[in-house]
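Protocol step 4 of 5: obtain the predicted structure for the target chain.
Materials: sequence only (see below). No template structures provided, no constraints applied. The aim of this step is simply to have a reference model before the mutagenesis design in step 5. Sequence pasted as it appears in the construct record:
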Amino acid sequence: MEVQLKVAGARQEDVGRGVVRIDKKFQRKINVVQGDVVEIIGNRETAALVIDAYPDDIGLDIIRMDGLIRKNAKTTMGEFVKVKKADVKPAKNVALAPTQRGMRIMISGNVVSRNLRGRVLKKGDVISLISQRKDPFTESIFSDLFDVISGSPFGLGEIRFVVVNTSPSGVVQMTNLTKVDVLPEAVEIKEMEMPTVTYEDIGGLKREIQKVREMIELPLKHPELFDRLGIEPPKGVLLYGPPGTGKTLIAKAVASESNAHFISINGPEIMSKFYGQSEENLRKIFDDAEKNAPSIIFIDEVDAIAPKREEVTGEVERRVVAQLLALMDGLKTRGKVIVISATNRPEALDPALRRPGRFDREVEIGVATKSGRKEILQIHTRGMPLENVDLDHLASITYGFVGADLEALCKEAAMNSLRRILPEINLEEEKIP
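Step 4 output (structure tokens):
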């Protein structure tokens, strides 16, 4: 027996835990209860522990999962996946490798095994090892697993591993007896690309992300809808707002979640001292995007290459603006190439760029509210070994802080604690307090 459910994003407290949330009505249909293992079938198959839906989600035919589980199932928010009870076996041996190229990890398999106790794995899955905090919605029957995890000495922040092999094969669950081998270096994964940024890595911008997704994911994934309506899909989105609010992060997350080819350029990088070279650089980028469609071109600091033509004295800037206008008008790949640009100074842009047909939608990315700041703090402290820290209080006293400020705050707090204990610890020892 299986059910079809719509994929929705996870809340911050569930990120990296390897769990999905399903309403009890659908749990009964597939004969599972909280704490059981379900198999999720998108364009790839993966598995996760099931826990009860949030009170707000009761009765909804959705399955909440984080970005890693979505990537493992090769699906994205808004798509439907099949969910069924998994045939799970206890894991005897599991081989893991870091996902980051160039990273060498020398860590005991016992430490990793202790962190993963109770987790569900399948060969090819990407998993996250972070210092977990217990979820207030989780009932005691399920909380033992997270007591184990939260007390772990693995305080290295968030590290992602790929499951290279499992014995037996298929869906396995980690136990006290599972032997874990950690390969020191990253391995090539042909099945899937690593998710760099997911929607759960962006805090306090739910409404803005929703707007950008409507403008970008629909044309990339379902251009036939626009054909049926007889209209041209949107070609561009302009994100504007103060520095550090998450404009670049939104563009990366949309590209990662929609599996689009992502080309990122900084405005000043385009400019060249040679005659005609700046326009040639722009043309090459658009050609590359069309060849690798579906693509997203992200132009950061777009005001550097497209200022108001009547206010610039140089001929190069005028030609670059004209070339960018021509390229946006000439995008042939219907709905398969989207241009996202970001600026702190929208009023400095050439008005011809801001008309419909070029940058169809302008989305303001503003300073986060108190609840948004709390979400951002949860993201940046996700891998920190925190005890008795009141994030609500921190969110209330950081009025006016943007995402970049809150990230700096978390880093500075970590560096302060490091300075405090550095004289007392022996770095030659394996264990760090």
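Step 4 remarks: The first helix runs from residue 24 to 29. Residues 131-156 have pLDDT under 50 and may be disordered.
Proceed to step 5.
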